[in-house]
Structures are given as C-alpha cells and as structure tokens.
Design brief:
37% helix; eight-stranded parallel barrel; globular; single chain; 9 helices; alpha/beta
Length: 265
C-alpha cells in the first residue's frame, strides 16, 4: 500500500460532527459517489465509521461490493470510557468491512496516559492481524506530544502493526515536522487538509505547496499512505448555497488535491 492515496469520506459528510442535524448520523450515502471517487483515481477509502455502522443494509452491501476498497476504517470511539465494549465493536467492524487499517484517537487527559496505553493494548489484541492500527497524533489529545505517542506505541507493538498519523495542513500550521522527527518510521499515514485552497488554485500550484512535507515524510517513512481528508467546499470556505458541503463540488476539489499530492510525492 506504499504511496497510496485515499479519500476520507468524512470530507463529503455534512453531518460529520452533528452540525447539520442532531445526533451525528450520516446524511451522505457514500455508495452514490463511488464511481466518481474511482474515476478520480483514488486508491481506496478512509471510511468514516458511521458510514458503515449507521448505514442501512443495502448501503453497506453496496460499499462492500464496490471496486473502490475500504482501506482504513476511521473510528471515533471513546478512550476515556473504561469499558472496552465499544472499542471491541469497532474492532469487529474492521473485519466486517475488510479494512487494512483503523484510524483512532486517544483521549486528552494527561493524567490518564497509563489508562489509554492499557486500553490500546487491549484494543490491539482485538484488531484483526492483517490491519494496521493508526493513531491520529491530533492536537487536543495526549498523542499530540510525539514523545508520549512514542512511549505508548513502543510498549505495545512495532511500527508495522501500530503507526502514527500526522497532518499536512499547509495553509494553517505545521503539524507534521516535530512528530516526524520523533516518531520517524512510525509515521505510517498522513491526513492532508487543504480545504482553504480554492478550486482556482491549479494542481501544479498546490503541488509546490505540498512538496516539502510530502518529500520529507516519504524520505523518513517510505511506507506511509495518505488520505485527502478535507477539500475546498466544506467547512464554509468559499461558501455559497451551491458549494457548501456539496459532495459533487467537494469531489472536484479532491480530485485536484489528489493530482497535486501525486505530483508532490
């Protein structure tokens, strides 16, 4: 899977954080956009967990039958909950959808690092052996500190089994260089966030913006895979009623972003 680039389905979900309707249930049926995603040239999906777990049976059947594979299941299960039940259910869904990786976030309480580590150890034991565990080293979680992340991971599994996700968000802040310096080859996946970049920016122009991060990460961790997580048209950038959270418009942006990232790599 080295160098593969996926589409994060959270990018085309207007209710990704329960902002459109209460409850956070999905409003987008990913199956309706699979042909567009495949034709754009994406290598697979990083599927928001609720696009599977909260989907009707016919939608799940369509996702599983698609030629666009589900490579990563993106989960948001709580790591502050002592009970392992929901995390175990996530592990079962990894196998059900045939994902080769699972994205997760640990919690934010620095006093609970030992608890998070033990919960991660138990989660790792539940995840199918063919799947990678990918911890999003996200700001607002204890894994934001790459030294904490390194110590947690080193106590559980090697880099082929348990890796880190860093963020390339070139229009906002540098979220990748410090984790890369500490975690090195543990960085196995990258979220690219370029929602601020309008469609008027060409793929060549965007490629030059992405190139420093793409080259540095690829040099340190040649096995890393990538996800276009957020593209122009979501989150209010360039908003008008026709564009905002419109999957067709967002996928146009994402195709440009894919072309730019491939060139940068």
């Amino acid at each position: 899977m080295t160098g593969q680039i996926y589409l994060g389905t959270v990018a085309i979900e207007p209710n990704r954080w329960g902002l459109a309707e209460p409850g956070g249930h999905p409003l987008t049926r990913v199956s309706e956009w699979l042909s567009t995603i495949g034709e754009a040239g994406f290598d697979g999906l990083e599927l928001w967990e609720r696009h599977a777990r909260s989907a009707p049976d016919e939608e799940l059947d369509a996702l599983l039958a698609s030629e666009v594979p589900i490579e990563i299941l993106s989960c948001y299960t709580s790591w502050d909950e002592p009970d392992d039940a929901d995390r175990a259910e996530t592990a079962a869904w990894i196998e059900r959808v045939g994902a080769m990786g699972v994205k997760f976030n640990v919690g934010s309480d620095p006093e609970a690092i030992a608890d998070y580590t033990e919960r991660l150890r138990r989660f790792e034991a539940e995840v199918p052996s063919c799947a990678r565990l990918l911890c999003e080293c996200h700001f607002g979680t204890v894994a934001e500190d790459p030294n904490v992340a390194r110590d947690m991971f080193d106590s559980i599994a090697d880099a082929d089994r348990l890796g880190a996700i860093v963020h390339v968000h070139p229009m906002a802040r540098d979220e990748w260089s410090e984790p890369l310096g500490v975690l090195g080859n543990r960085v196995r996946h990258v979220h690219v966030q370029v929602a601020e970049v309008p469609q008027s920016t060409s793929a060549n122009e965007l490629s030059e913006v992405l190139r420093p991060a793409a080259e540095a990460i690829s040099a340190e961790s040649p096995n890393a895979t990538w996800t276009i997580e957020f593209s122009h048209g979501m989150w209010g950038f360039g908003r008008d009623d026709a564009e905002f959270d419109n999957p067709a418009y967002i996928l146009q942006s994402a195709q440009r972003d894919l072309e730019a990232l491939r060139s940068a790599l």
